[in-house]
Specification:
With 90 residues, the protein is an all-alpha fold. It contains 2 helices and no strands.
Amino acid sequence: MAGHDQRVNLIINHGRQLGRSLMLLVHYTTVFVAFVGRTVQWMVEAVKWTSLFAHYTVSVFDSIYRLLHWGKRKSVEAREICPSSHMQPQ
């Protein structure tokens, strides 16, 4: 009878250990999934801010270009549009 009780206790202890291991597995899986979620969210934010910075930089350079070239060519002469239409008669 002692051998039987010992085997039953061994099975019970192994079941408890298996339950603890599964609980730890679930816990650490949850921690890992949360970490991956935060990492992906950080990467999305980094791409968003990089895109906004790029648009801002282009806008700044465009504004500087327009400021530097403002008023240099207010009108386009007709001969620049179509030089062949304003040829001198021979």
